[in-house]
Amino acid sequence: MPNTNLEITKTAIDDFKKIQKYMFLAKEENAEKTYSELKREYFSLKAILNVAGVNLTDIDEIKE
User: Fold this and answer.
1) Cα-to-chain-centroid distance, residue 57
2) Distance between CA atoms of 52 and 9, rounded to whole angstroms?
3) Is 20:42 a contact under the CB 8 Å cutoff?
4) Which site among 6, 15, 17, 34 is 20 to 30 Å from 40 CA-CA?
C-alpha cells in the first residue's frame, strides 16, 4: 500500500516548483497582479511543506 503522506508531500513539492516557475515568468513579464496571486499560493505551499518537515533549502528558488 502506498504511503499517502508521501504522495501528498510529493504533490505539494511538485506544485511548489511549478508556482516558482510561474512566479519567475510573471516577474519577467511585469505581471504584478499575477505575481501577487502566485505569491499567495507560494506562501501557502511553503507553509504546508514546512509543517510536513520538508527542507526547502535546495528547492526554494524565490526565497521570500
Assistant:
1) 12
2) 7
3) yes
4) 6
Task: Return the residue matching grid coordinates 519567475.
Answer: 24
Average pLDDT, the chain: 92
Contact residues for 20 (Cβ-Cβ < 8 A; gap 6+): 42, 60, 61, 62
pTM assigned to the model? 0.85
Placement of cell 499575477 in the chain: 34
d(CA 27, CA 60): 16
Whether residue 3 has pLDDT greater than 70: yes
Number of H helices, E strands in the chain: 2, 0
